User: Which sequence fits this backbone?
């Protein structure tokens, strides 16, 4: 056994006998190490100029094999050192991906763009997730452990947050183009007339808010755009909620926030297939977007 441990120590650069014993205890891992050369994470980063955050992404997506100093194969655990199999590293990085200083710059630049845009375009919870992944270089497994949710849920939330940023940038671009083209076609008087019409419409809607507990009163007190109450709710939610939840609203024939405000949480649960998960997801969106809580 001592001879096998000596051979193992020559393969990997660790000094702790406890660590060697932990790796040796995993027979499958030990066999792999004896057959293949390995490289430490630090050596991999230095040699191939690869960002640590990108390397974590390769691990979490299962695109590269690795093991940690606790003797676990393809399992990420905070506070451990990682090693990779050199043949996979060369195959993946020597010619499939061209890592260079310019790649690192572009990668970090895009991260900065996402981090700078996040506060203005997504919720605080989503911004925190983006920050942990792109700024703090936490892996999806580490985020899942910290937030006490599943790896798949972290993956879903990250995708949703980035897609929402992209979607809202596109919508802002469309709005800007529409606004500038409209100004070119309209005279100053026409613009003022349209503004007056819009203000009068909001005033008429505001008169309906005589009851302070109504959704209209809530929107006015909190400074939200009162016209949102009449918008197509299912269209607005298509990038924010799951298909299941949107389907529940469609089957319940709830088309606007105004209609939704007429129901309590208990009322919604009576609709077919409208379960607690869909309800929680919808309530979360209402609170995050309009600070509105269903009774």
Assistant:
């Amino acid at each position: 056994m001592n001879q096998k441990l000596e051979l193992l120590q020559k393969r990997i650069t660790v000094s702790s006998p406890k660590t060697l014993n932990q790796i040796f205890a995993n027979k499958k891992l030990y066999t792999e190490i004896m057959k293949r050369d390995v490289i430490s994470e630090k050596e991999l980063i230095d040699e191939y100029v690869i960002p640590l955050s990108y390397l974590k992404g390769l691990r979490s997506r299962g695109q590269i094999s690795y093991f940690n100093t606790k003797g676990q194969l393809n399992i990420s655990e905070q506070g451990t050192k990682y090693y990779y199999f050199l043949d996979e590293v060369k195959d993946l990085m020597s010619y499939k991906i061209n890592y260079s200083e310019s790649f690192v710059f572009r990668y970090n630049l895009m991260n900065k763009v996402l981090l700078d845009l996040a506060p203005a375009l997504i919720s605080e919870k989503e911004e925190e997730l983006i920050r942990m992944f792109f700024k703090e270089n936490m892996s999806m497994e580490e985020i899942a452990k910290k937030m006490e949710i599943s790896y798949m849920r972290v993956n879903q939330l990250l995708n949703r947050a980035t897609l929402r940023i992209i979607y809202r940038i596109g919508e802002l671009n469309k709005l800007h183009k529409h606004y500038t083209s409209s100004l070119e076609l309209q005279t100053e008087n026409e613009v003022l007339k349209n503004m007056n019409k819009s203000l009068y419409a909001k005033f008429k809607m505001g008169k309906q808010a005589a009851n302070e507990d109504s959704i209209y009163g809530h929107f006015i007190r909190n400074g939200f755009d009162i016209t949102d109450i009449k918008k197509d709710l299912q269209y607005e939610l298509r990038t924010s909620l799951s298909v299941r939840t949107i389907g529940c609203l469609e089957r319940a024939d709830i088309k606007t926030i105004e209609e939704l405000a007429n129901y309590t949480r208990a009322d919604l649960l009576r609709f077919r297939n409208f379960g607690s998960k869909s309800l929680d997801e919808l309530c979360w969106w209402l609170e995050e977007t309009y600070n509105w809580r269903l009774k």
User: Anything to note?
Assistant: The chain has a mean pLDDT of 77.
